[in-house]
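tl;dr need the bound structure. longer version: we got a ligand (nicotinamide-adenine-dinucleotide) that a collaborator sent over and nobodys looked at where it sits. i said id run it. heres the input, straight from their email, havent touched it
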Amino acid sequence: MTGTAAALDGKRAVVTGTASGIGEAIARAFLSAGARVLAVDLPQSNVGDVYADHAGAVPMAQDITEAAAPDAIAARASEALGGLDILVNNAGIAHGGSIETTTDALWDRVMGVNVTAMFKITRAALPLLKESGAGRIINLGSIMSDMGGPELFVYGTSKHAVAGMTKSMAVDLGRYGITANYLQPGAVVTALSAPFFEDEAFRTYWVEKAPVGRLGVPTDVAAAALFLAGDDAGFISGVGLNVDGGAIVKF
Ligand SMILES: NC(=O)c1ccc[n+]([C@@H]2O[C@H](COP(=O)([O-])OP(=O)(O)OC[C@H]3O[C@@H](n4cnc5c(N)ncnc54)[C@H](O)[C@@H]3O)[C@@H](O)[C@H]2O)c1
């Protein structure tokens, strides 16, 4: 991240799902770039310890699917950061299953984290983002925002919803100087994806599918988030940015 050290100086950010993986990498990149970050993750996570070394981080133990979560997150951002410039809706879960095996409970669980919480947290944060004058919303989609995948029925559905929701946010919120974009990671090794990559054939498939010839790491995605969060990205809105080593464009 050399050369971008002060890119977010004075900015105030909320990032969800920051105890591990891509969310942690985004929060750390923002902190290194001078932002203060409200770092949200589940009460049973170790989010309080992850940022013990960072004065600019405010950890918040909160399940984002709880009814009180959106207002609680906005209130904490206001109180601890004095406002909000950047919202990263990163927290997400993935569970396997086809349309035939997906139960109502699984559907509600995945859509609850990946879609409904994203909508409600963003809605609650809007007064603060409007005050910012240059608000940034960055949502975590996936390459599965553009395609289906075997045994990933509800996950794929949820990530397509992220694409549609983000484009609608961009249209509704541009008048307030707010941009909304979504990131589309490919195969990135994290706690969420590790069980899938234990299958050697699956791992090899994704290494070979990416023209750059490797799996992604969380900092690959954080670099894209840092760019979209910055002042220079103010004319980019409604876009899905693939961070996949080129995998999706190769058949
Ligand atoms: N890893 C990949 O290959 C990949 C690919 C495409 C998209 N994504 C997306 O990137 C995002 C981050 O995924 P990751 O791979 O870093 O996963 P991860 O499991 O490492 O991290 C997700 C974090 O979200 C938190 N979280 C889950 N449910 C929550 C809830 N209800 N309330 C608060 N926090 C909650 C978890 O505790 C965890 O710390 C997700 O939206 C995921 O769908 C990941």
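gonna send this back to them w/ a short note. The longest helix spans residues 104-132.
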